Amino acid sequence: MSHVLETSFAGRTLKVECGKTGMLSDCAMFVSYGDTVIMVNVNASKEPREGIDFFPLSVEYEERLYSVGKIPGGFIKREGRPSEKSILSARAIDRPLRPLFPKGYRNDVQIVCTVMSVEQDNLPEFIAMNAASLALCASSIPFTSPVATVSIGLIDGEYIVFPNAEQREQSIMQLTVCATKERVMMIEAGGEEIDEETMINAIKFGFDQCQLLIKFQEEIVEKCGKEKPEPKLHSVDKTIEAEVREFAFEMTKEVMYIIDKEERALKMKSLREKIDEEFGEKYADNRSDIADTLYKMQKDIVRNMMLNERRRPDGRAFDEVRNLESEVSLLPRTHGSGLFTRGLTQVMTVATLGALGDAQTLDGLGAESHKRYMHHYNFPSYSVGETRPMRGPGRREIGHGALAERALEPLIPSEEEFPYAIRMVSEVLSSNGSTSQASVCASTLALLDAGVPIKRPAAGIAMGLITSEDLSKEAVMTDIQGLEDFFGDMDFKVAGTEKGITSIQVDTKIAGLSEYIIKEAIHGAKKARLQILDVIKECIPTHREELSKYAPRMHSIQVHPDKIRTIIGPGGKTIKGIIAETGVSIDTNDDGKVVVMSNDAENAEKALAMIKELLREVEVGEIYLGKVTKITNFGAFVEVLPGKEGLVHISKLDHKRVAKVEDVVTVGDEILVKVTEIDAQGRVNLSRKDAIENSEKDNKEEK
């Protein structure tokens, strides 16, 4: 049975159609907001997947270029691998939903959000996030907590819900809030140095707006929701759990209280061997239950240590940052490099400057077509002391790179101030807690080392959380390390400058965060951020005054926009010729700006001279040495400047009468000519006779 339900939200119509399409999916819906339309389909396997110890949820965000009236570029005219934007959107849908599934649920669940139509005022990713929650709640899958998502902008001190395209351009903040009825599930934010109180109030405003969408979701589920059968949940065999706990609990506790990470890892390996020796043969068919019990013991011990004993695994205070080190100019031939170390977390970022033509071209659903500032992040296996195949970047690497990019983007100088494309590459050398935020710090060092005049240095830190089962006790930790992240409840990453916040990303493993925790985390992050910024400034107080000698130099001139076509030439022939002869790179803008980039100052000057020569205007009365390009029976055409020709009429070729043009000149001859006239149609009339007279007169005067 088909249902259509509508509501008005932020001045636009939100419409949901269920039961009309996707008849074989567990739940399929069309969700539209304005002219943006998302088709969502959710399905689950009939039985749990055997032999796994995790919840197999997959989220796909399928961009279709027909949604914005585009045909894909390139040779293959169909969508290829997911864009970075698509991957980031899928991650954003996954993160607030995953913690709300029942513990022990091991059925495969797939959420597919397909972008069918896009109106730039209404971004599809936010509609998809709401659509995914709605479809799960209405399906037979055991998901019962509606999650709403809103985007918030900030213009002239006023919070805007779902800002349109024009408002997004004006907004100094881009905030995404996902929430249930009770708590905030996820936060993502980017901003132009937003102060802490403004950000906290924006999150609270976003939470309140989410409640309106949750109410609408509940109305739809009541109309077309399916019955939810009792799911099969994995649980550890109680007998095995009791025996393993009795045998190994105290030994596990002793190991988990070891402060040194490497020593603790060695002792844990030895303990696993003891447990396997004791129970491996007895419970050969239930080895996963043994492993699950050991994991639960570790988790219980660490959480009790922090929550009740107020002690962290490495002995730090709850608001203490690990040892910090900063270094720049590590690599002699790169344009800029920075090494940042926080405890056992270490990231090196390398900055590369290029021509504006090196900017990334985006073939996606958004209005933006190019990206001048790019940040890439690599997380090799050696960073955690492991071995695995080296493949391309996964979703995590793409997400972490985007997070670091968002943190620094508001600080990058404009194209007018610094006309370079900038690529940052963060290499994780050692990982034990929040490498994405270490990437922000290392990238700040690299940008300053490269001579990029950023507004202010930025730094990032990750905050953690431990809660009791009934949520009556909560403890926030500064600068979480790997163990605290693994057994903790929250990863709250905040980056910014001494002036304010530039990015936030928050994930939880529990059913959301209270207002108190959000405030504590944001204020605690500021204290740590200022401490890190002091270390960065001590290493390199400001950007280098001079670029690296290996960085390309920029030379620019402003010309009339109509002259750009002259510089480019037919089919790009002219500009390609200049590049081939001088070895420079040249970028031209529609506004008439021409940028020449080269490591060789002499070649750059030569290219600029060639461009200026192209742009020289023919002036009446001036004498030029020109080349004969064409002969007719009435005269000769002569190129006096590159691409600029005029006619020497046969009567103007010589003092005496000329019977045939060929008697005086041939194609390829270089002759002196004087410009006698430029008519109303722009045609240039030349005279060899007058040029000769002028030359003879000058010679007499010299004598």
Summarize the helices and strands and which ones pair or pack.
Elements: E1 3-9, E2 12-18, E3 27-33, E4 36-48, E5 57-63, H1 84-97, E6 107-117, H2 124-138, E7 148-155, E8 158-161, H3 165-170, E9 173-179, E10 184-194, H4 196-224, H5 238-256, H6 261-279, H7 287-307, E11 324-328, E12 336-342, E13 345-354, E14 360-361, E15 370-371, E16 373-378, H8 395-408, E17 421-430, H9 435-449, E18 459-467, E19 474-478, H10 482-487, E20 490-496, E21 501-508, H11 515-539, E22 553-558, H12 564-568, H13 573-582, E23 585-588, E24 593-598, H14 601-615, E25 623-632, E26 635-641, E27 644-649, E28 670-678, E29 684-687, H15 688-702
Parallel strand pairs: 5-6, 16-17, 27-29
Antiparallel strand pairs: 1-2, 2-3, 3-4, 4-6, 7-8, 7-9, 9-10, 10-21, 11-12, 12-13, 13-17, 14-15, 18-19, 18-20, 20-21, 22-24, 23-24, 25-26, 25-28, 26-27, 28-29
Helix pairs in contact: 1-2, 1-8, 2-4, 5-6, 5-7, 8-9, 13-14
**What overall form do the CA principal axes indicate?**
elongated
- Total strands: the figure is 29
Q: CA-to-CA gap between the ends?
A: 106 Å
> By CATH's scheme, which homologous superfamily of the largest domain applies?
GHMP Kinase, N-terminal domain
Helix-strand makeup class: alpha+beta
- Corresponding CATH architecture of the largest domain: 2-Layer Sandwich
How would you write the strand order of the largest sheet? Answer: 8-7-9-10-21-20-18-19
- At the third CATH level, what is the topology name of the largest domain? Ribosomal Protein S5, domain 2
Number of helices: 15
Q: What portion of the residues fall into strands of 2 or more residues?
A: 25-35%
Helix content: 25-40%
How many separate domains make up the residues?
Answer: 5
- Runs in which pLDDT lies below 50 for 5 or more consecutive residues are none
